[in-house]
From TrEMBL:
PANTHER family: MITOGEN-ACTIVATED PROTEIN KINASE KINASE KINASE 20-RELATED, SERINE_THREONINE-PROTEIN KINASE NEKL-3
Domain Protein kinase: 1-262
Pfam families: Pkinase
Region (Disordered): 256-315, 349-383
Keyword Kinase attached: yes
Protein name according to UniProt: non-specific serine/threonine protein kinase
Species in which this protein is naturally found: Streptomyces coacervatus
UniProt xrefs under InterPro entries: Kinase-like_dom_sf (IPR011009), Prot_kinase_dom (IPR000719), Ser/Thr_kinase_AS (IPR008271)
Entry's EC annotation: 2.7.11.1
Top-rank taxon, per record: Bacteria
Record's compositionally biased regions (Polar residues): 373-382
Transmembrane residue ranges: none
């Protein structure tokens, strides 16, 4: 029904999103004035709905341009630059903990809308946008049902997206908050499974499946599966409340593998590694390529795992959990043993990023470390210019490469993707830890089409201390628990590389500064209160 434009506000000097309504037929008002009026009212309703909701996970409306009767209004809204959840899922399924985090953000937005008397009625991946730091933003309230307003649905018709519509809405019932929760749960199901359980070949067949067929339990959702199945029930009154759903999602986000219930269970297989397979086994339902094998229960000691607050610079990670359906247990264990050794002397996990990664059975074992003479003491704070350069020098010496695909500096270690010699896209992961030196990870992968390699010497690391002080003043994070610096890739708004200075607290409230390569701040994104 329209187009969303990226525009520049010439008065305030900022980018905005402008929603232009364009009916399927420009002559709609002439031959079907009632439909034209209904479309106009829906746009005005969306503007009013957004104006009634003040929440960081709901897109903000700045202005409405309305020419009066016979015209269609234009909406001027904040521009959310990270793409949509649908874009993210096109690259592959999410891990359960990541889906739980996204789900909590969308649920918070829905709760704010419900408190304002608004039911969204069209929760789906395309209507969830992602900020550059990964926070979800709910948008497109064009078909929202607002209490105390007239119904804008034509007699005998339903509005929404068949795949994510709650069963009660298909039967003509407007539903309520519970209907939005069904849509949210179905969206998360699709996010972790990589497929929609009730989607069929036609819209009518999909509607019939949603109305009459039971949702099959997910196979890759881990602890999230039970939560989703407690929402995807046909009776709205039997679904989890928003408060209970949020609490259970929070538990999964904080403890994605359910340590409390699994840590003391004995193994059921002999600790003798089977012969390594010649070709890794992939799950047939995985939409991502390449794939990382991650055992349910977490990675063993020495395997790189990203912190919960790590920035998502080019979209979240794409690994999936292994399913045993159609695969022999011996074959799965062989893959896990070969890719993720169960031994090793290093008990501290390294901090590599799994984004766009593939397992590499032929890679050097994860326990390999450099003995670089410039290794710093174990309690060194890495967020200083000299220490950052020490890590860069050590990684370059160990790898023989000077081109990187990613580079992140935390207070206690440095994570890098180092390009494979002779390749413009292939990389391997390394971490540098003070007191230990350089360690090669088992993760390898390829850059996305919009990414390109860089050399660390391109950046003015001398600016980091001053930028950290500026972040303390401007990012609205009073008691930061995590500080880190990331290399940020060029994008549509910033055509050059830059640095991201991130702060986050124990509540996962995060803010960041973006700078150019010289350390000049070009964008400030404070944490929401």
């Amino acid at each position: 029904m329209g187009t969303v434009w990226r525009a520049r506000d010439l008065v305030l000097h900022r980018f905005v999103a402008v929603k232009e309504v364009r009916p399927p037929d420009r002559d709609l008002a002439e031959y079907d004035p009632d439909s034209a009026r209904m479309l106009r009212e829906r746009v005005l309703r969306e503007a009013r709905a957004l104006a009634r909701i003040d929440h960081p996970n709901v897109v903000t409306i700045h202005h409405i341009v309305d020419g009066g009767e016979g015209t269609y209004p234009w909406l001027v809204m904040e521009l959310v630059a990270g793409g949509s959840l649908a874009d993210r899922l096109a690259r592959g399924p999410m891990r359960p903990a990541e889906a739980a985090r996204i789900g909590r953000g969308v649920l918070a937005a829905l709760t704010a809308a419900h408190d304002a008397g608004i039911q969204h009625r069209d929760v789906k991946p395309a209507n969830v946008l992602l900020r550059p730091d990964g926070r979800p933003v709910l948008t497109d309230f064009g078909i929202a049902a607002i209490r105390e307003t007239t119904n804008l649905t034509a007699t005998g018709s339903i509005i929404g997206t068949a795949d994510f519509m709650a069963p009660e809405r298909i039967t003509g019932n407007e539903g309520g908050a519970a209907s939005d929760l069904w849509s949210l749960a179905m969206m998360l199901y699709t996010a972790v499974e990589g497929r929609h359980p009730l989607r069929r070949g036609t819209t009518l067949a999909t509607l019939a499946a949603v109305l009459h067929e039971d949702v099959p339990p997910p196979t890759q959702a881990g602890p999230l599966g039970a939560v989703l199945m407690d929402v995807l029930v046909r009776d709205p009154a039997a679904r989890l409340s928003a408060a209970v759903l949020d609490r259970r999602l929070a538990e999964i986000e904080a403890d994605p593998i359910g340590h409390a219930s699994t840590r003391d269970e004995p193994t059921s297989y002999q600790l003798t590694p089977p012969a390594p397979p010649s070709t890794p086994t992939t799950h047939p339902g995985n939409l991502a390529s390449p794939t990382t094998f991650v055992p349910y229960g977490g990675a063993p000691a020495g395997v790189p795992t990203a912190p919960a607050t790590a920035p998502r610079r080019r979209g979240p990670a794409r690994p999936v959990l292994l399913s045993l359906s159609g695969t022999s247990l011996v074959g799965v264990l062989a893959v896990l043993w070969w890719v993720l050794p169960l031994g090793g002397n290093d008990s501290a996990g390294a901090g590599g990023s799994p984004s766009t990664a593939t397992s590499s059975p032929g890679a050097t074992p994860v326990s390999r470390k450099s003995q670089d003479s410039e290794t710093l003491s174990a309690n060194t704070d890495m967020l200083t210019p000299d220490h950052i350069r020490t890590a860069i020098k050590a990684i370059e010496k160990e790898t023989g490469g000077k081109r990187f695909g990613d580079f992140t500096v935390y207070s206690d270690y440095v994570s890098a993707e180092v390009m494979v010699n002779g390749s413009k896209v292939a990389y391997e992961t390394y971490t540098y830890r003070p007191g230990k030196g350089v360690e090669k990870g088992i993760i390898a992968g390829s850059l996305d089409s919009l990414e390109k390699p860089f050399t660390p010497e391109l950046f003015n690391w001398d600016k980091v201390p001053a930028l950290m002080k500026e972040a303390d003043k401007k990012l609205n994070v009073k008691d930061p628990e995590n500080r880190y610096v990331v290399v940020m890739m060029p994008n549509a708004f910033y055509p050059e590389f830059g640095m991201g200075i991130y702060l986050s607290d124990k509540y996962s409230r995060a803010g960041y500064l973006r700078t150019d390569t010289k350390g000049k701040v070009v964008d400030v994104n404070p944490a929401e209160n």
